[in-house]
């Protein structure tokens, strides 16, 4: 491959909103056959909003939200931002938190007033032997069946309610998936979120293969396993939890709207966070290398 043609390719990429770390990246781009896509912030906008506050028993909605927001102040996750924003918008008091712990991909814990609070996925509550009353589980599964993300809020040994978060699919995502298919690539949706929510998003954009409820460390293993099966894998992601998988993939594409850690781990940055530029990058490399050979 002549270095000049490759440099022209990377220059053209920059014009198209695709920042390529070096000319050699175009080589691996050309061979890709599988595209693994993170859900939150990649296929969806990642700007979650609080859709419902569902307290159970004698807890009030304001109490549930105030307590949850106190702990979520310590987290930068889209779920946490939505909860904090909603509490602020409702004029709820900001309570201090002590002993904050972030359980990546599962939730958070902290002490608010006299309460030991846990917020997150059902597994996190199980791990700490926190009871999940039937009413809480029913509210959670109902929310998840509509494609929303539900997190449990618990204190002092029992789940006290559910916070339901809505995240919209980006307007360009469905078209982006159609373009990837047209290039002969297989898209796979990969997420730490629950399977019902993941499927709903996948259906909206036309993805058949879904791998859900994967912990941050597990994303790396999914990429490795696909590579062991002989696939040449592109990974597209935006979060801290995607960084290891982006580095492991044959081609890592980071959303320019995402975290610095993801951008550093990737080979290509999609400047505008528009998923259609994944296809642009692959077309560009095929064309560039096509002219060389
Ligand atoms: P994704 O792969 O879609 O980016 P993550 O792996 O970041 O998702 O998170 C997976 C799940 O863990 C979330 O859907 C949520 O249920 C839970 N979770 C993560 N962080 C938090 C948090 N700060 N508060 C509550 N729940 C959280
Ligand atoms: Mg993400």
From TrEMBL:
It is found in: Cell membrane. It comes from the Bacteria. Belongs to the cation transport ATPase (P-type) (TC 3.A.3) family. Type IB subfamily. This is Cation-transporting P-type ATPase B. It comes from Nocardia aurantia.
